[in-house]
């Protein structure tokens, strides 16, 4: 076991140590980035919203015209076994399916006899340390250079990788992607803003990944009577926001407190996490401890 990946991992119907799990270099995931993935959080060994994650996996597979190698119940069996054998209480389960290994390199799909490659493993779910949460993180804006099916959770993530690295090179945690004057999401997160007490979120379109955490945030907002506006967010609105947050299954909710070197918000608390973000984080923790950890 590496400190990051638990043994055994799952590969094509078998559970085996990571060191013994191998695939051909002709795998289309390797040659073309031709595949899909999911990241599912696990709290106290209970998997969170597995049906929703498996539904999104299926939607992405349908979107790239790749047959699912496992049924939903088959995937659940894999996930449960990984959770059971990993040494951590809180985990992050990674699933990946590629279009498999042909005996040649050809852009068009391989013959139907080529089986998809299915891979899955568990990692520890490490949440953001309290001292970082207390200060929030810095982000930059970059042009969104991705393709036009950002609603699909595909493994071809080069534009996301380059955007995130640009942020890291500037000492920042996330890159916010701007397309045609609108903020769509982060390189690996959804983005919410707060203005005058209203929580704003971009709508689910083909230019944004429909986050499972995004749904949880909107459900929590609704159940606590928090006003919400779902509408495209202009870059100017982003810069004028009182609060900006990033959300994902692994980051949960994290305040972005500076953007392109400028503090988010106005007045004496500019550049600090805002009240609604702190409140939402608390609602999320309460939900996690009362619902997610109980299964
Ligand atoms: N990424 N948008 C993008 C581009 C993402 O990559 C992610 C998650 C999200 C948030 O989705 P969710 O709430 O379902 O985690 C939004 C995962 C964590 C990753 O790539 O590791």
Overview features:
six-stranded antiparallel β-sheet; alpha+beta; D-amino Acid Aminotransferase, Chain A, domain 2; binds N-(5'-phosphopyridoxyl)-D-alanine; D-amino Acid Aminotransferase, Chain A, domain 1; ten-stranded mixed β-sheet; 2 domains; 295 residues; 16 strands; globular; 8 helices
How would you describe this protein?
The protein is α+β, with helices and mostly antiparallel strands and 295 residues long. The protein has 2 domains: 9-124, D-amino Acid Aminotransferase, Chain A, domain 1; 130-294, D-amino Acid Aminotransferase, Chain A, domain 2 (Alpha-Beta Barrel). It has 8 helices and 16 strands. Strands 7, 8, 9, 10, 11, 12, 13, 14, 15 and 16 form a 10-stranded mixed sheet that branches. A 6-stranded antiparallel sheet has the order 2-1-6-5-3-4. A hairpin with a 2-residue loop joins strand 10 and strand 11. It is globular and about 60 Å long. The model has no long low-confidence stretch (mean pLDDT 97). The structure holds N-(5'-phosphopyridoxyl)-D-alanine.
Low-confidence stretches: none
Strand runs, count:
16
What's the architecture of the largest domain in CATH terms? Alpha-Beta Barrel
Number of domains: 2
Largest sheet: 10 strands, mixed
| CATH C-level category of the largest domain | Alpha Beta
Helical content band? 25-40%
What distance lies between the first and last C-alpha atoms, to the nearest angstrom? 27 Å
Q: Would you identify the CATH H-level superfamily of the largest domain?
A: D-amino Acid Aminotransferase, subunit A, domain 2
Average pLDDT works out at: 97
Structural class: alpha+beta
Provide the succession of SSEs. EEHEEHHEEHEHEEEEHEEHEEEH
């Amino acid at each position: 076991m590496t400190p990051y990946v638990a043994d055994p991992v799952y590969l094509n119907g078998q559970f085996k140590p990571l060191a013994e799990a191998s695939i051909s270099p002709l795998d289309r995931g390797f040659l073309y980035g031709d595949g899909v993935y999911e990241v599912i959080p696990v709290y106290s060994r209970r998997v969170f919203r597995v049906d929703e994650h498996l539904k999104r996996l299926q939607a992405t597979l349908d979107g790239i015209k790749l047959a699912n190698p496992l049924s939903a119940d088959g995937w659940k069996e894999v996930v449960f076994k990984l959770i059971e054998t990993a040494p951590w209480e809180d985990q992050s389960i990674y699933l990946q399916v590629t279009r498999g290994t042909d005996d040649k390199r050809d852009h068009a799909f391989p013959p139907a006899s080529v089986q998809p490659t299915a891979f899955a493993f568990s990692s520890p779910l490490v949440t953001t340390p309290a001292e970082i949460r207390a200060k929030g993180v810095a982000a930059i804006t970059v042009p969104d250079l991705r393709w036009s099916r950002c609603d699909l959770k595909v493994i071809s993530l080069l534009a996301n990788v380059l955007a995130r690295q640009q942020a890291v090179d500037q000492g920042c945690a996330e890159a916010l992607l701007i397309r045609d004057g609108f903020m769509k999401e982060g390189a690996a997160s959804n983005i919410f803003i707060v203005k005058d007490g209203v929580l704003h979120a971009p709508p689910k379109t083909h230019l944004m990944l429909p986050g499972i955490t995004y749904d949880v945030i909107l459900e929590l907002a609704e159940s606590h009577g928090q006003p919400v506006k779902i509408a495209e967010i202009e870059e100017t609105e982003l810069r004028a926001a009182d609060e900006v947050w990033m959300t994902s299954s692994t980051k949960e909710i994290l305040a972005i407190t500076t953007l392109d070197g400028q503090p988010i918000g106005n007045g004496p608390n500019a550049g600090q996490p805002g009240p609604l973000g702190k409140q939402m984080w608390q609602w999320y923790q309460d939900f996690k401890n009362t619902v997610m950890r109980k299964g």
